[in-house]
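Run: sequence + calcium ion -> complex structure.
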Amino acid sequence: MRICVRSKRGAALAALVAVAIAAPLTANAAPSGDDPKPRAAAPAGSADDRRIRQYEIHGPSTAADRTKIASSGVSVDEARDHSVVVSATAEQAELLRGQGHKLKALAGPPKRLGGKAAEPKDFPAEDAKYHTYAEMNAEIDRQIAAHPDLISKKVIGKSHEGRDIIAVKLSDKVADDEAEPEVLFTHHQHAREHLTVEMALYLVRTFGDGYGSDERVTKMLDEREVWIVPDVNPDGGEYDIKTGEYQSWRLNRQPNEGGDTGTDLNRNWAYKWGCCGGSSDVPGSETYRGSEAESAPETKVVADFVRGRVVDGKQQIKAAIDFHTYSELVLWPYGYTTDDTAEGLTQDDRDAHAAVGEAMAESNGYTPQQSSDLYVTDGSIDDWLWGDQKIFSYTFEMYPSSAGGGGFYPPDEVIEKETSRNKDAVLQLLENADCMYRSIGKEEQYCKA
Ligand code: 0X9
Ligand code: CA
Ligand code: CA
Ligand code: CA
Ligand code: ZN
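>> structure
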């Protein structure tokens, strides 16, 4: 197990200093080290109390330390050598302070309003290159119209608020279910991670336009069937932008008993759900796992879709990436345990995950590691994909590497660079998908019929 979580500590620290200096200029920012308001001014349950913001906590250095922090119900957004950045409500922050932690409030999400009121239900004008749910669908429909033999889509179910959740298929003879290894890309489980939707659109565009001219793309679309679920959490994504001021929202928009809203979709999957202190059973927490596995309609819709790819008793999907932001990491299972191998994950399984994961990280410059090297999580999609479906699965945490690069809200100017940055890694996964064990020289043993 790796102990050094990130290599770019210097850069992260410099960025943090930059944020601290910039903080007073940001309307949303609180003086560092203090609550935005005295607690008395924000009675429990008030809008202020529920507002989510980021805090830096100095001290936590190991996966165990970070798991303990996460168990208070906050989300751990960044793990550095000797500190973490978390997202928390004022209430949760108070709880952590009560446990003796010193929390330093970071600047809130950028306003980017250019002095004008934002259009409701859209990104601020300065971030106009990001796609709303409607714009995403329009862009996908355009690509399908341009490449009807290559791209198709189907509605695989509905979100809690009734939005369509779609799966886009890309392959030669796209209308036929051919005997080709299938590969899955999922995006936007977490509402505020908007760059992941752009990643999906980048893939649809790059594969659609590259077929016939880009040799690697052409070969992969000829020999693979690619599934992209571009927006697992459309309700959360729309909620995050609808006031014109980013809400730092993570969850879906399903109401819970007791009045709080939202389930962490990436703690709601049906493998070792809630097993190991890697999620919260408290509604209102940032990692609330839901009332039972697949209690969130969005989780169930995607899980049903994946189960539906079992044909004649064989799962057709061989490999998958679930896109998140941020921290620039390539992660592999399991998340529920810090052991390298466990039930259903042999040394060879682990080594093949690591070999392909490390090669992908080599190409995009991310840091490769087992997901629990960060902190323990249970009920995550990657554990379910491998543990339940034997699909090789990765989580990519995209740009930036730290809060200094914009955290969950990098400016739209970075979209092209930070999505195309993953082209080679995605192609590598597709190229390996017919036999992931080739990466450890064990094709004969595992991949011969
Ligand atoms: O905690 C998460 O769900 C992911 N990080 S995020 O900041 N985007 O919320 C990481 C999930 C990685 N996979 C597992 N830990 N199993
Ligand atoms: Ca811009
Ligand atoms: Ca095909
Ligand atoms: Ca097929
Ligand atoms: Zn995420």
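>> summary
The pocket of zinc ion (ligand 5) is lined by residues 189-190, 193, 324 (CB under 6 Å). The chain has two domains: 26-105, 125-447.
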